[in-house]
Amino acid sequence: MPAWIAALNPETVLVVIAGIGGLIALLLLIEAVRRLRDWQIRSGIVFLVIAAVVAALGTAGGMLAAGLHSYARLTMEQEAARAVFRELAPKRFELLLVLSNAPARRFELRGDEWQIDARVLKWKGMGTVLGLDTLYRFERVAGRYADTAQEKSAPRTVHALPADAGFDLWTLLKEHQRWLPLADALYGSAAYAPMADGAQYAVNVSATGLLLRPLNETATKAVGGWK
């Protein structure tokens, strides 16, 4: 496979396919109308059916592209976000989360630790042969308590991360794996680490999941003293 094809975003490929499919469907529809107008009923209906099938396939490609747009490409371990903490009170922290593909956001988290979750969309079979990269999308960030009893009874904080993609590719792939064998959507990953005043972490993503790396001495000490 040429390198320039493998380097294309999956959504770009799908948009191109959808565009070509739409153009072909339009040409077929024009020919169907011409034949029906000339009373070539049988061939006109055949062209009409083919146009409908091609249009449906093009629409499907466009919907898949819309779903993929909310995921980020992943070719190797890479930094996908940074997290900075400020202590507000005992077991209360402000998190400044800077995502690589979205504006920075602030959250209040309660507990001793913080956790970030992501969906990982891994291709298999022909998807791998085509050179499609693993994709990921952050789902939520939450506070958690080191003590199990507190985790059950103390106030919890959970915040959703992704914007509304308009089309849930994950659900589509999960419910129709039999008919869409290119992707394996049943994969989620989460990582958690201690919170501390001034601690900074890098959120790295690889094909195997999420990894949190301390970026300063405060975070390193927090992890080193983790119990």
List keywords for this structure.
227 residues, alpha+beta, six-stranded antiparallel sheet, five-stranded antiparallel sheet
Low-confidence stretches: 1-8
The largest sheet is: 6 strands, antiparallel
| Share in β-strands | 25-35%
Counting H and I runs of at least 4 residues, what is the number of helices? 7
Give the end-to-end Cα distance, rounded to a whole number of Å: 50 Å
Number of strands: 11
Helical/strand content category: alpha+beta
Provide the helix percentage: 25-40%
The number of domains is: 2
Average pLDDT over all residues: 77
Which value, in Å, is the CA radius of gyration?
Answer: 24 Å
Q: What is the overall silhouette?
A: elongated
The SSE string, one letter per element, is HHHEEEEEHEHEHEEEEH
How is the secondary structure organized here?
Elements: H1 3-6, H2 10-37, H3 41-68, E1 72-74, E2 78-89, E3 92-99, E4 105-110, E5 113-123, H4 126-129, E6 134-144, H5 148-153, E7 158-160, H6 169-175, E8 183-184, E9 188-194, E10 200-206, E11 209-214, H7 217-224
Antiparallel strand pairs: 1-6, 2-3, 2-10, 3-4, 5-6, 5-8, 5-9, 6-7, 10-11
Structure, described:
- By secondary structure, the chain is an alpha+beta fold.
- The protein is 37% helix and 33% strand.
- The chain folds into two domains: 3-68; 73-224, no CATH class.
- It has seven helices and eleven strands.
- Helix 2 (10-37) runs antiparallel to helix 3.
- It is elongated, with a radius of gyration of 24 Å.
- It starts with a helix and ends with a helix.
- Mean pLDDT is 77; it is low at 1-8.
